[in-house]
Amino acid sequence: MPERLLVIGGDAAGMSAASQARRRRPAEELEIIAFERGRFTSYAACGIPYLLGGLVEDAERLVARTPQVFRDRFQIDARTGHEVVEIDTGAGRIRVREVGTGKEYQEAWDQLVVAVGAEPLRPPIPGIDAQGIFGVQTLEDGLAVERALADDPKNAVVVGGGYIGLEMAEAMVMRGLNVTLVEQAPQPMRTLDPEMGALVADALREVGVELRLGETVDAFETRGGRVTGVSTGEGVIPADVVILGLGTRPRSALAREAGIPVGETGGICTDLRMRSQVEGVWAAGDCIETFHRVSRNPVAIALGTHANKQGRIAGINLGGGYATFPGVVGTAVSKICAVEVARTGLNESEATEAGFAFESVTVESTTRAGYYPGAKRMKTKLLAEQGSGRLLGGQIVGLEGAAKRIDVVAACLWNEMTVDEMQGMDLSYAPPFSPVWDPVLITARKAAERVQASRGGR
Predict the structure, then answer these.
(1) Alpha-carbon distance 48 to 12, whole Å?
(2) Contact indicator for 356, 346 with CB cutoff of 8 Å
(3) Which active-site residues does the annotation give?
(4) Whole-prediction pTM value?
């Protein structure tokens, strides 16, 4: 009898784990069954705003591998429309419900991977369960919004100014809706410092998004079970469609109910090899808690980059190899209207919370040599620890050609470089790509000078 691996979750982490395990162990040695409650496997959730905005013409283009491909090419029994509703770690069994029929059955496992992802935050606001209010986390969620847009709505309200909220606001503008964004904070995108978030706010206003900053949603107005408006302390905003962009949390209830330990962030606890604290149970992706290499604290960050890596590592270990996940630094990039937005490491509030004393420097520059056609403005910010000068984080907001410079900052952060070491790096230069002093190097130099001054010139 072959060993049996069951995978709960059919997207990035789960199917990466299944695929890697299969590459190392043939079907005669390892039977693999994956359960996905939706219709799709291995899809690009990050592409959903571009699908809804019309930049991607068909949902199928977001699917990397279909269930049939997994069955035929990888000999992985990918069962869509099957939701796992219970894990029995003592008996080594799961209980599965067929979504279409409600029929339930059990499956036994020798090894189990939990990769159920994250879920959109839905705070207990009156009316939040009305029709027309959507969280957008899965491709199924995106298609639900697509169906709502087919009814030709006029007014969209986005609640929350994080990455998903802002990308969805732009998508709604591209579909011709009147768009209002409500954000409790003074600026959108709290992962940035306020002065950087203000640049994002300006970009949204330029394309016609009405920003209601510093406002809290008190209730959703409804009629006949459908949303009609969003009520804040400033009045009621008309709404035919509401998008929740309040962030996500790890979908860890299934694991918690099974007695699988969950950490302070709400994510499943794993070791470096992606093993949970229960024998034979592994976990990967947006449902887990991981380690931040700068703050040294546990974090739960929902990103496909991490999910794919973590799933791959779990699969290598399940297949008899050895691999570890070294943690994260929180690198993320997005395009909001014409503005590119990037960040890595800690922002000022996160650095303060972690206990660092730091210096911060912001520099305005251009993406190319100033005299070269197409040079665009950009702003770069770096944080460095007082005394040591160690880089703690970076943020970039600018026009085309700005954001991917964050990868240089992330690489420096990963290797625990100081801003003094950064300023001497040998980065490429040609007028179509950069000023002779790249904005990252200029900012590192100024940060090093600020650190030196804070030492009193020592």
Answers:
(1) 15
(2) yes
(3) 46
(4) 0.94
